[in-house]
Structure formats: C-alpha cells, structure tokens
Amino acid sequence: MEYYKDLKIRNFDFVYEEGNVERQIQNEYDFNTFISERELDGNNYILDSLKVVENDKKSFSAWDIKEVFSEILQKNYISLEKMLSLDMKTLPPLEHEFSKNELEIFVWELQKNLEAFNKAAFTNEMTSRIYINPFMTTAVRHVKISMNKPLQLSVKVVLDGTRGYGPLDYLVKLTQILILLVVAKSDDLKQGAAQAFVQAYTAIEKLFREFSKPIVYGIVSTGKLWRFFR
Fold this sequence. Notes:
By secondary structure, the chain is α+β, with helices and mostly antiparallel strands. Helices cover 33% and strands 27% of the residues. α2 runs parallel beside α5 (190-207) and α3 (100-116) packs antiparallel against α4 (125-147).
C-alpha cells in the first residue's frame, strides 16, 4: 500500500468573469444569481465562464501594487515611483537601425488610427490596443527581418501559476528573453504594473524552467503612456 505524505488539503473558490471584473461565488445567493443569468441549452445551463481556483491565488488583474510589493517582490517600496527606474541607456544599442520605410509605415499606421477614431484615443482597453499594435508589430517584424531571430508576437496566452492566472495581453519570447505587455485599464498605471509583475513571476515559473537566469521585461501601456520594468 502506498502512502502519500505530501498531499495537502487546499481550499477552492468558484469564480466567474462579468465584463472585465472577476466575481467570486461566496454563498447560495451568489450561485443562484449566477445561474439565473446563464443561457439554458435544453436541460443544461451554459457555464462557460465559471472557473474553480485555489483561494490562495487570484487572477492577474486582481492584484494591487501593495500586495505585489510585499508578496511577489518582497520589498518595502512605498509607491511605484520609489522603485528603481529602468535606465533605457543601459540597454544594448540596435544592431540594425529602423529603415526610413519602416518608420514611415509605422507613423502612417498611427496617423490612420488617430483619424479613424477622430483622435479619441485611449478611451477604453480595446481602443488602446489599436494604438499599441503598431508599436509591437513594427518592433517584432524589425527584429525578425533585420536580425534573423526566431521571434513571435502572441496575444492572450493563458498562464496558470502558483500566485496568479489569466491571459497575457501581449507576449514576445526569444530564447531566455521574455517581453510582456499589459494594457492598462486607465491612465493610472499602478494596476497595470501590479498585473505585469505577477505575470512576469508566473512566466518565469511556467516558461523558463530550463533557464537559471531568464531576462523578463514588463511593459504597461495605455497606448499613450508607457512604463517599462525589468
């Protein structure tokens, strides 16, 4: 007979997403409310948004910056502004500069989007993506073509780690270098920064097990405001 001494009892929660907000089912009333809002397919309810999660972890978007400081970074930062800034001058220079044609196409894309939206930029997450996309696609394409690197841009890649779970807005992976970009929900980048740190922690857990010293860059952006972390 085998004995499993390392098994742990874990507590689980039922959660579901309503819009961009994650809600927890805490009692019978919450469950009945959730069921009443679902579609009925024959004799069965469609429960596609219902998830079972360990209650000691939460979705990336549910973390706030103070929790990240104490639990993920384990630092006594007072605020995001008190953290050491990433000095862009310490990054290696481009091996190949962007061509005039690349830059003209990039600027044209941004101008096209501004005109299409009547310059009403950054009003919500989906609009922000319209302006972020040219930055990401132009940069990734440039590296792939000019440097012949096996690079790929991915969106909505789902990760599930020990501290958080959920989709990554943008992901770029090159060997042991990873770039994550979080689309901020508003001009306040604190929530987006918290999300980026937990995503980076989870990415190291799940995507870089074979590397001892992975390099992870986090970006938080509204399309207008940008903040970089390493």
